[in-house]
Amino acid sequence: MARVSPFERYAPDLDAYHERARTGPCFVCGIVARDPDFLGHHVIYEDDGAIAFLNGWPTQYGYALVAPKEHREQATGDFTAEEYLDLQRVVHRVAEAVREEVGAERVYILSLGSNEGNAHVHWHVVPLPPGTPYDEQQFAAVMLETAGALDIPEEENASLAARIGSRMEGA
């Protein structure tokens, strides 16, 4: 994989990740509750209905997640049209703040999860760095299995979250 980031990549323990996703507590609810087991996900934005935070295992620098604070599992069916559009406004604001902060050439936005694991609906906001070769874009850039995770120091993640949050305040 091309090095478009100054941070080293590592292969996380995917078996342990999937086991926790399928049998552990809801990670989004844990982040909302500020459970110490979920401190690696730095919050970048929060309002009464939504929360946005950095991915704890980012494949790209600035990779963020946006979720409703209330536990909901369906990307559309658990929302009124107004609630859904309000949440998508947050997704848009996060994506623009991330894009501007990290200088992404493109931002991928997708909702992933499963009723069998990571059931709390959330949207992935994944910035693609300039110069990423075509065969390392799209799903290859998003998936841990293909991209690996960036080893970003804790202090840098905290600083990045604060900078993205500041951009959202100005939006």
UniProtKB/TrEMBL annotation:
GO MF annotations, alphabetized: catalytic activity
SUPFAM superfamilies noted in UniProt: HIT-like
Gene Ontology BP terms: nucleotide metabolic process
InterPro entries the record matches: Histidine_triad_HIT, HIT-like, HIT-like_sf
Active-site residues, Swiss-Prot/TrEMBL: 122 (tele-amp-histidine intermediate)
Short sequence motif named Histidine triad motif, residue ranges: 120-124
HIT domain boundaries: 27-139
Name of protein: HIT domain-containing protein
Protein source organism: Rubrobacter tropicus
